[in-house]
Automatic annotation (TrEMBL):
<dbReference type="InterPro" id="IPR039793">
    <property type="entry name" value="UROS/Hem4"/>
</dbReference>
<keyword id="KW-0627">Porphyrin biosynthesis</keyword>
<dbReference type="GO" id="GO:0032259">
    <property type="term" value="P:methylation"/>
</dbReference>
<comment type="function">
    <text>Catalyzes cyclization of the linear tetrapyrrole, hydroxymethylbilane, to the macrocyclic uroporphyrinogen III.</text>
</comment>
<comment type="pathway">
    <text>Porphyrin-containing compound metabolism; protoporphyrin-IX biosynthesis; coproporphyrinogen-III from 5-aminolevulinate: step 3/4.</text>
</comment>
<dbReference type="GO" id="GO:0008168">
    <property type="term" value="F:methyltransferase activity"/>
</dbReference>
<dbReference type="InterPro" id="IPR003754">
    <property type="entry name" value="4pyrrol_synth_uPrphyn_synth"/>
</dbReference>
<dbReference type="GO" id="GO:0004852">
    <property type="term" value="F:uroporphyrinogen-III synthase activity"/>
</dbReference>
<keyword id="KW-0489">Methyltransferase</keyword>
<keyword id="KW-0808">Transferase</keyword>
<dbReference type="Pfam" id="PF02602">
    <property type="entry name" value="HEM4"/>
</dbReference>
<comment type="similarity">
    <text>Belongs to the uroporphyrinogen-III synthase family.</text>
</comment>
<dbReference type="GO" id="GO:0006782">
    <property type="term" value="P:protoporphyrinogen IX biosynthetic process"/>
</dbReference>
<dbReference type="GO" id="GO:0006780">
    <property type="term" value="P:uroporphyrinogen III biosynthetic process"/>
</dbReference>
<feature type="domain" description="Tetrapyrrole biosynthesis uroporphyrinogen III synthase">
    <location>
        <begin position="22"/>
        <end position="269"/>
    </location>
</feature>
<protein>
    <recommendedName>
        <fullName>Uroporphyrinogen-III synthase</fullName>
        <ecNumber>4.2.1.75</ecNumber>
    </recommendedName>
</protein>
<dbReference type="InterPro" id="IPR036108">
    <property type="entry name" value="4pyrrol_syn_uPrphyn_synt_sf"/>
</dbReference>
Length: 281
């Protein structure tokens, strides 16, 4: 980072409330000025019923699939809320997607039985270490808005998948004043997106802040949003953590200028440093 720095770059970070500090510190260490604009708030699901039922029947499952740090934390917090601990998992094997998810699991003194390569959910299907047929899989996940790829693929290959709402992600009510001012004054060099929802909620916040009617349904509303996004992100590098996030960027913002080669936050930082080095040649 010392020779390939982000000095003099202002980066707008759109992550969830309380989850941007490590990423932010890494960017600052690389020399960037960081403005945090949380576009997600992670809260409890509207109902614990599905997860509670699964926890009461853990012994019936063969695998526990965890695809985010949020899933890890909320699942084990709920397990503890029932007066149980990791020993209740018994013979249940754990698969995780992503380096950060694995690290969060290790903080619970657990090692995953399987971590797919490439840090993306799609590879868990291709590289899964057992036959899916006859397996019962517990999948604690975001309540709404997540991808259904894993559920469809597991089910198609003969597994029984039990989805359980472990948390939900909601859009914050407002843009922080510092972020709003930076956008209005065109003082942002890069905006980073680490999930499809951060893209969608960023657009939702932008629409609300700059008085654009947008529900995400009407073509006219979408065009109005595009104009506002184009105006306030003019000259700003749109940086994505990976392919799924990039799809959302293309759909709602109209472009992606940079995509991480390794689909992690560290990979995103490396891509930003390489991008800045190239521009400064």
């Amino acid at each position: 980072m010392a020779t390939l720095s982000l000095t003099d770059r202002t980066i707008l970070v759109t992550r969830s409330v309380g989850q941007s500090s490590e990423f932010t510190q890494s960017l600052i260490h690389a020399g960037a000025k960081v403005i945090e604009m949380p576009t997600l708030e992670i809260v409890a699901p509207s109902s614990w019923e599905s997860l509670d039922n699964a926890i009461m029947n853990l012994a019936k499952f063969n695998w526990l699939i965890l695809t985010s740090s949020n899933a890890v934390n909320f699942f084990f917090d709920r397990l503890n809320a029932h007066g149980q601990d990791v020993s209740e998992l018994g013979e249940v094997k754990i698969a995780v997607v992503g380096e950060k998810t694995a690290q969060t699991l290790k903080q619970k003194d657990l090692q995953p039985d399987f971590t797919p390569p490439n840090f993306v959910a799609d590879s868990i299907v291709e590289k899964f270490p057992e036959e899916f047929s006859g397996k019962k899989i517990l999948f604690p996940r975001v309540e709404s808005g997540g991808r259904d790829f894993l559920v469809r693929e597991f089910t198609a290959k003969g597994a029984e998948v039990v989805e359980a709402a472990a948390y939900q992600s909601v859009c914050p009510s407002n843009i922080p004043p510092e972020a709003k001012l930076a956008l209005k004054k065109f003082n942002v060099d890069v905006i980073t997106f680490a999930s499809s929802k951060t893209v969608r909620f960023f657009c939702q916040l932008l629409a609300k802040t700059f008085n654009v009617k947008w529900s995400g349904d009407s073509k006219t509303e979408e065009e109005n949003l595009r104009r506002v996004v184009k105006k306030y992100l003019q000259g700003v590098c749109v940086a994505s953590i990976g392919p799924q996030t990039s799809k959302s960027c293309f759909s709602l913002i109209g472009r992606v200028d940079l995509e991480a080669k390794e689909y992690t936050l560290d990979g995103l930082i490396k891509a930003l440093v390489e991008w800045n080095c190239f521009l400064n040649k």
